[in-house]
Amino acid sequence: MKISVIIPVYNEKETIKEILRRVRQVKLDIEKEIIVLDGASTDGTREILEEERDNSTRIIFEKERKGKGAAVREGFKHASGEIIIIQDADLELDPNEYPNLIAPILRGETSVVFGSRFLSGRKGLYWPSYLANRIITLLANLLFNATLTDIATCYKVLKKEVINNLNLCCNGFDFDAEITAKILKKGFKIIEVPVDYRPRDYTQGKKIHWKDGFRTLYILMKCKIKE
């Protein structure tokens, strides 16, 4: 059994070395591989990544920036693990959560786990962002008869066999809505596990904007209507 950690990166020179250190030091009972996909960073991230290759870390450089969803989907193609986890390159979420996140899958309880930032409260997220997350998650629940608390979480853990059934196509941050909607439409059970969350702001490099929220709502509706 192996877990593939997919890390999409764009202009994260301040955090990329630290997030790789944290992911590498996580102790698991199964083999671990790390796949980093750099979306044509221009801030020096690429140069840092050139020095971070090792036997457990594969670095893939995209020729142009296509978006988080495109990077993750490319990572899926290269993943050799039976379990896949998505990890953002910032430090908002802690890789030490991995054992708790993969536990329900290893126990055979489910094929999909989401790390929810909101099962135990707002976790310091700014009110506008929190409200947007609540609206998006509520709509997903209504459309797909679910009871989730956080569809926009980075921490999505899936068996590779699930991913192979989803036919994903979104390139941007709307990818989170698309993968959630298609998992639910296919009838896969999603178990949520609480995770700690330390949000950063736009001055620290946060990239998602209000326009992404409207795109997310559109994707949810599209996935509901389209067979």
Textual characterization of the structure:
- The chain is of the alpha/beta class and 227 residues long.
- The protein has a 7-stranded mixed β-sheet with strand order 3-2-1-4-6-5-7, sandwiched between helices.
- The longest helix has 18 residues.
- The termini are far apart.
- About 3% of the residues have low confidence.
In the predicted model, the low-confidence regions spanning at least 5 consecutive residues are 202-207
Query: How many separate helices?
Result: 8
Largest sheet, spatial ordering of strands:
3-2-1-4-6-5-7
Integer average pLDDT: 91
Number of strands: 7
Look at the helices and sheets and give the structural class: alpha/beta
- The end-to-end span amounts to 33 Å
Gross morphology: globular
Fraction of residues in β-strands:
15-25%
Biggest sheet, open or closed, and with what strands and sense? Answer: 7 strands, mixed
Order of helices and strands: EHEHEHEHEHEHHEH
User: Compute the gyration radius: what is it?
Assistant: 16 Å
Assembly status: single chain
State the share of residues found in helices, binned by percent: 25-40%
